[in-house]
Amino acid sequence: MINREWHLLSRPVGWPKPEDFALVETPVPTPGEGQVLVRNEYLSVDPYMRGRMSAAKSYAAPFELNKVMQGGAVGEVVASEAEGVAVGDHVLHFGGWREYAAVDAKSAVKVDPGAAPLSTYLGVLGMTGLTAYAGLLRTASFKEGDIVFVSGAAGAVGSQVGQIAKLKGASRVIGSAGSDEKVRLLTEEYGFDAAFNYKDGPVGEQLRAAAPTASTCTSTTSAGSTWRPPSGR
Questions:
Q1: Mean of the per-residue pLDDT values for the chain?
Q2: Rounded CA gap, 153 and 56, in Å?
Q3: How far apart are CA 163 and CA 154, in angstroms?
Q4: Please, what is the end-to-end C-alpha distance for the chain in angstroms?
Q5: Which of 20, 74, 157, 221 is the most exposed place for a label (fewest CB within 10 A)?
Q6: Residues 42-68: pLDDT tens digits?
Q7: Long-range CB contacts (< 8 A, 24+ apart) of 27-32?
Q8: How many CA atoms within 13 Å lie on the side-chain side of 130?
């Protein structure tokens, strides 16, 4: 059986180019003791992966040249040498960017395709959703009735922050984005109360216009900020 893997051939300068990558055919690996063989069905494309294409020091090790790239993936177990994980189970793991991956069972997480589509375990039910949830409710200490401002609101995390805030009882949710199309997406599809294009003018002025009753910003996260109204909530 043939496996297909994406390899990084060279470190991009500026925008990544197709010639920086190669789709390589390799034999399908055999799982060792304590491992499972997963046929990946969905791969996650995440912003941090661009940083790993560089050799610069960062919080994550750079991708190695001429080797398979790594990333989040979810798929079906087709062979198992591990207790507790059976053929036919579905797992979330970090050995993606290949068609088949042999991964340690202890580093894989079982997921239920009957509870939600498999792709959601790489999004709202995965790292993206956890970042949004923890950033808003734990780091920013959101409280019901708060006015919430989300920068980068049309992105994967930001869009979920706004929707979680609405579900948790925010009095007003405001987002900023970099295009008029994204601004419409926030208000027409994601349920934001207001949104603006940060390229149209100073962010502070546009934010004050969108939240005229808000006081100063009291806490922030990478995804946005939580504002308290003058009433002291």
A1: 91
A2: 28
A3: 11
A4: 61
A5: 20
A6: 999 988 899 999 998 888 899 999 999
A7: 27/1, 27/2, 27/3, 28/1, 28/2, 28/3, 28/100, 29/3, 29/100, 29/101, 29/102, 30/79, 30/102, 31/79, 31/80, 31/81, 31/82, 31/102, 32/81, 32/102
A8: 5
